[in-house]
Every structure is written in structure tokens, then in C-alpha cells.
Amino acid sequence: xxxxxxxxLRDLRRIWAQSLAIALVLGCGIMVLTLSAGTxxxxxxTRAAYYERHRFADVFSSLxxxxxxxxxxxxxxxxxxxxxxxVVFTALLDLENxxxxxxxxxxxxxxxxxxxxNVPLIRHGRLPEALQQNEVAISEPFAEANGLVPGDRxxxxxxxxxxxxxxxxxxxxxxYIYTIGAGALMPDDRHFGLIWMRDTAAAPVKNLxxxxxxxxxxxxxEANEAAVIAAVDRILAPYGGTxxxxxxxxxxxxxxxxxxxxxxxxxTVLPPIFLIVSGFLVNMVLGRLVALDRAQIGLxxxxxxxxxxxxxxxxxxxxxxxxxxxxxxxxxxxxxxxxMTQMYTDFFRFPWLIYRPGAWPLVISGVLGIVAVIxxxxxxxxxxxxxxxxxxxxxxxxxxxxxxxxxxxxxxxxLRQTTMxxxxxxxxxxxxxxxxxxxxxxxxxxxxxxFFSFDAIDLINEELFEKTNRQDATLVLSANLNDSxxxxxxxxxxxxxxxxxxxxxxxLSNGTKTRLLALQARAPEATLTxxxxxEGRALTPSTAGIVLPEALARTLAVAPGDTLRIDLxxxxxxxxxxxxxxxxxxxxxxxxxxxxxxxxxxxxxxPQVNMIHVEIDPTRLAELQARVQDxxxxxxxxxxxxxxxxxxxxxxxxxxxxxxxxxxxxxxITIGVVYNATRIQLAERAHELASLRVLxxxxxxxxxxxxxxxxxxxxxxxxxxxxxxxxxxxxxxxxFSTDVVTIPVIVTQRTFAVAAxxxxxxxxGAVLLVRRRLDxxxxxSALKQKE
Amino acid sequence: xxxAILRTEDVTKVYHTGAVDVHALRGIDLSLxxxxxxVLLGASGSGKSTLLNILGALDRPSSGRVFFRDQxxxxxxxxxxxxxxxxxxxxxxxxxxxxxxxTAQENVALVxxxxxxxxxxxxxxxxVGLSERMSHFPAELSGGxxxxxxxxxxxxxxxxxxxxxxxxxxxxxxxxITVLEALVEVNRSLGTTTALITHNAAIRRIAHRVIYMxxxxxxxxxxxxxxxxxxxxxx
Lengths: 787, 235
Fold this sequence. Notes:
The complex is a heterodimer. By secondary structure, chain A is α+β, with helices and mostly antiparallel strands.
């Protein structure tokens, strides 16, 4: 081994702690990029494979009833590949382990054989046998939540009669990766399940023998989806079609899309911060390391090494650190990406996991990492190798300080000289201070942007469950009933108050922008459910026009005063032109609202209800639940406390782990930056600090100079980090918000405080780690070094 | 009889560097008296600086005892030695050891801020003839001026002992003399015991006593009844 290479290895060993700190920060940046890009890609591929193997349909529509012959007509539409008509309805269940009623969506399977589209994936047992009226397969999450296994029996209310059903198997479906019951906002696996029955068993329940009320179809590669949807709508209109839609409006798919989009936001907003910070840090530290080697560089040149050889030597050394960082980043990114993908796979209940992070995140992050360190080294090497050997071997000229800002400040505040040293050092080397502040404020920003998700969840939680939905339970009715059903409901046991609601499927359009959604009729006197204006205040429905959630108004590009076209997708199937009355804040869901009386006047009907919100005496809940199970008019019963619990659990699961990772990384950046900055300070000022000890300064007083300079920079960087963090929050909120979920931009004082506290503690820990070295400095030899 | 302010008993110092032990001091018995100027003369490596560092509590002896008046320093904790330096000792080094980011006045204030009964920085600087250069940074001062700032900084706390390690070593003779004048003036007006290391034999003429060192031992001690003013010294 050549002498220079041996020196390289020993140098690396000597500065191992600093090298490791640099490599770790660099590794963080690389890890985040590898992790988020890898997870997103793997999940996208896993989903695509799942969809393909289980023939997830491309277009969906529900309708009232159409004879099976219509399927042939639909199959002839240009671009349609496969068509399947099914019978789908909601049923109440009576489960032994639950006091409260559960509900299920019943989905028909062909009379024999496998489904054509949306093919269920059998996890345990088998599908129901043809002609077996009481056999069902149930969704796996529902089976697990309720402890049901093949062979078990449970009761369902089908067509007003209780029937005993036998579980033959548990299945998963690409159509219901994410399962939400009617009237619910969140999945609730205990209280809502999916049941697959043979068509011969399901159709008679709804008198749909030889007919279907749910359509799925797949498209050929070159099909024009919009044209197919228009054709399907045309064909199904006489049969009560409520509007066909593509995968982009299919509930389960949309939710997964939004999760993937959120992952995408994480992988585009946060990693650049880490990469940039680590780049700067590496630049700063390596620059100083090489600069400290100045005398050696002079010596090498004096004994005849070429500038090229010396430059190469230092580049090798820094590349070594860079490679270490890249490898750490890749390894952790790969491993965490796998864990994260696994977590999401379990969360979404994908039947398998394809972990294929792809090469480009590795390549890009690796190249960026190496470039960052090489650039940092080049700058310093360049400055040092240019010097004549004699100049390089003598110590660098002392810095020239000038009077300025610090004088006035010191005089006015009566600062001690040790504080003046700190101020002048910061002013003398603003670039160095800037790097520290950049790193620290980056940390704060990352922490604010991560913790903001908790604030957003809290706000959504409060608005969703305390302000908007204040009812204890919601009853979804099997059919539209006269308004008097509300009075009947108020007489159910334990019901203190009941308010009716009416939901009608509509298509809203503004020019080419259209959305299918539910239009809710709202009575002005309703208090159990409320709308909130954009400031979060309660709002009564307007008689002047339609009320839209902000996100929907944005999608349709309308503002209050603009006119929208409403196509009613159930009788009387009219089209209206209606002004937008106001825009409301709604974090979840896309329903639009209309004043009840105005709506029914336009419909020329007496007011009807198909949903009833109730306030309940909690002590009589069991009694109410028992009664609901015996009431055929009620299709489902949702307890809002369950919804709320599910909501919290769901969001916590997916967000908490990301938040933990990013918080750790945020801390690591501060530690890396501050530790290195302090080490540089110590190396450059060891002589000065030893002089203070000679003058009789105590250890604590000398430590003050080292500690306070870094902590001062940290403290100044925190507000900058808050500001940047708020900026990232805006980006994240945009990245996280989808058609169905609107993430509010809200950062509480708690979040700002926690971020600041974590960074302060991390910085202090890092400084104190270096301060211990100060205690070990030998005054005499430190003084001699200069001579 | 003269009172000893600093006293050593059989002080040795051994540096363990790798395989070899370097005996820097071999049994030093020495007393420094109130108000005197002592010059320690000796070749490079004779142990002068090591002795000065031990006298000034910058370093500990390997064996032997050091007393400041009646107090034994050898037993004291690190913190107590810091207090001793802070209150009793002033140092002047060959390379000044000024803090480059502080002006002349601020360098002196560095010490006056932590001392018990200091003079003002302005007074300390005027004693070394630098009243006009108070707000200059070290880089804006000549070597002699910098060394005089270092002396002002050392005496501002009114120390009992002033320890100077080659204070003129980095200066030309003319500048060196102004520095020596400052030291003698401080000794005269404040009565500060001053120990001065040099390998420049000419300087011995300003001292009350001259201590010759060689190979870690005191080879001889000379009284100097015919002291001269620094201006009469030349080299």
C-alpha cells in the first residue's frame, strides 16, 4: 500500500466520529429518497398486479333494475371487453358477538363458476356452491374482526326475514381494498362486511331474478372511457342508472390513490430538504477538514508530490465518507422501504407484496450524495493545493476582525467579552453560521411538517365529530320513506331526538368538469348535523342554491354566484341549472347540500327521508340496537363513536410511523450539523480556548464560548425553521389533499413548541458531546501547538 | 529576611512519550520572593518552560511539592488551581496569546471581568503605554504592541506573580526593550513578583536574581546587585 493511502486510512480512523456524523446525515437524505420513492413504486406495482390478476373492472354503475339482456347491448359498446351484471344490496346482520347490529353489502356471484370481473381472492375455504341458498363467502377483514371462520353461521335480515347463513370461505376483493359502509366515512370492519352469494340466492331477495342492479365492465386498451361511460349512461337511463364512473371515482380505488398520492408528496417534499442539508453540511465539514490539513498539503508539495496526486488523495478520502453515507442510506432506505411497504400491504390488505423499489432512486440518490461530498472537498482542496509549499506549511494568516455591529450591541447590552467573542466569530464567518442555521432550521421545518399531521387530524376530528356530525347514530333506510318516518324513529327506544335527511345521486357539471356525488337535503332547523363555513362557523342551508365543499368547488372551478348544472340520477331524472350559494369547509367526503324545502319544491314531491340521524340515551343503546335488528325498514345502523375510533386508528397507523421516522431524521440532522460545527470550532479555537483557561477561566466559562455560539445559532434558526415548516405544511397539505380528503393547513403552537424543543435538546446534546473534549484538552500542549 | 511567595521542594517532571521517558525537571528546589524580578536563563530544552508552567499551575509536577505562600498547590483540585491562576497569576507568552476577535481593551476586559479587584482596562493599558491603541484588534497592532497588550492583560488583575515565557522572543531588540520596560515599570509600581524566561543572556541584567538552568536542574543562582534599566540592555 502506498504511503498516501495508508495516511488516508489512518486519517479516516482519526476523524471517525466526524466522518460518521457526515455519513449519517448524508445517509438520511439518501434513505428518505430511497424509502419513499421505493415504497410508492412498490405499492403502485402491487396494486396494479392485484387489479390485473383479479380483473378489477374499469367502469362501474348502479341502477334500479335492468333485465340481463341489457348486458348484451352494453357489451356491444365500442371498447368494452367484459361485462358483468350483479345484484348488490345492503343487509342488516345479527352477529352473536355484537350487541349492536352490523350491516353488509351483499354481492352476487354468477349462478355457478367464478366471477367475470372483480374476482374475489379466496383466503380460506371456498366460494358458495351453486344452488346453495344459505352459503356465503365473507370478506376477510370482517371475518377476522368478528371471529368468523368457514363453517360458522350467522343471521342476516334478508327481505324482512331473518335467515341463517353458513360461511364457506373468507375472501379479499380488488374492488373493496378499502371498505366503507353506506352512510359511513371510515372503514369499520366489525360493523360492516361484504357477503358474496350465488345469484340464485341473492336475486330473489330483491326480486331481481333474471335482472341486475349493478354493472361492472372492463375496457380494451384503446377504449375511450368517457365515450363508454356516456353510452352506458344512455343505455341504463331507463333502468334507473345512477351514472357510470371510472376507476377514478371508485371509492376503494380513490382512497388508495390518495394514500399513494400522500406517499408521493412525502417523497417529493421532504427528501430534497435532507439532501440539500446534507450536501451543505458535507461541504462545510470536509472543507474544514481539508483546510486543517493545509500544512500537510504544503509538506507533500515540498517533497515533490504533484498537485494532482494530492487533490486525488483528498478526493479519495471524502469519496470514502460519501460512499459510506450512500451505503448507509441505501441499506436503511431499502430495509425501511420494505417494512413500510409491508405495513401498507397489511393496512390495505393486499394479498401479497411486490417489493420493487426500482433502480432510479438508488442511482439518483447515490450520484447526488457523492457529488455533494466531492464538491465540498474540491472547494477546500482547490484552495489549499494552490498555495506555494512554503506558504501552505506556515499557519494561515490570522483573520482580520473589524469593528461593526457587535461593538454597538456589546456596548448597549454591556456584554461580557466571552459573548463578544461569540458574536464576532459569527459575524466573521457568516457562511459557516449560515450552514449551521440552514441545517437547524431544516430540522425544525421537517419536524413542523411532520407533526402538523397530528394538528390536522385533531382539527378534522373536531370538525368532523364535534361540529359537523353531532349525532350519536345514523340509520340508513332500505327505501325512501315519507317524512313521518322521522317521528317513528323518534319513538324508537332510547332515541332522544331524530332528524331526517335525504340523499339523492346527482351529476354536477360546469362545462366539461363533472362529478358524480350525493346531494343531501338539509333542513334549516337541523342541529344534529351541521355545515361549517370556511371560517369553521355553523352555516344554515341556503334557499338560494347549492352548497359545495371547498375541494369540490375547486374541482368544478366554481365560486359562489356561478351556475352549476345538476342532473338528477334518480326519478324525476331532471336537469336543473342552479347557482352556487356558498362554499363550506369539509375535510372528508364530497357531498353537496341543498335546502330541504327548496329541493322538494323543485322535485314537486312531499318531503321524504332515506337517512335518519339520532341522538341516543346511552343507557338504552342495547334496547335500541335490538329493535333496529328487527326493523326491516332500516338497512344499516352506524354508531358514530365507532366511526370516530376507526378514523383515529386508521390515520394514526399510517401517519404515526412516517412521523416517527421523519422526526428521528430531523433530530439526526440537527445533531449532525451542530456536532460538526462545534468540532470545527473546537479544532480552530483550541488555542484561544486554552488561553482562556490559562487566564483563569473555569471550564464552564470556557465551555460557554463553545456552547453558547452554537445554541445562539440554533435559537435564531428556530423561527426561520418555523416559517419554512409552515411553507412545507402548505405543500404537504396540497400533496395530501385529494377529492375525498381535504387536509387543513393548521399548525398549533404545540407543534411549533415541540419542534423547537426537540431541536434545542438535540443541539444541546451534540454541543455537550463536544464540550467533553474541551475538558480533556491539555492546556500546555494546546498552547504549544501554535508555536 | 525576604518572604518566599512561591516555593518548590524537590520538584520533578517526567514526560512519558512512547517508549522513552523524558526527564524535564530533576529535583528543583527554588523560592521566588515578594517583589523581585527573576530571570531564568537556559538553553532550549533545559526545563525553563516546564518549571514556569508548574509554578503557574498550568501543569502538575510528577513528584515534589509546590507552595504559594503557606498553601500547598500540589494537593489542589483542578478547579482550585483554576481559581489560583484566576486570582494570583498573570501570564505573558512569546506569541502573546491574545484573542484575535477582541480589541486591545476587550482583551484586557476579558480578565478584569472575572478578577476580584482589578484595575480598569484603560489603566492597565496606560501602564504599558497603549492608551492610544485601545480599540485596535490584535491584527492591527505591531508585535511589540501586542505583547504589551498581553502584559496589560496579565497585570490588570493585580496578580501576585507575573510569569513571562520568552516575552521578547518574537520581537526585535528595540521592540523587546519597550516590552521589558513595561515589565520593569509594573514591577516597580505594583511590586509584582516577576519571573521571566529567556535564552537571551543580556536580559539577565535587569533582574534581581538570575537562575541558570541546564538539563532539568538549576545549575546556579546569581544575585545581581547592579541592575540596569532595560534601555541600557542591548542584544
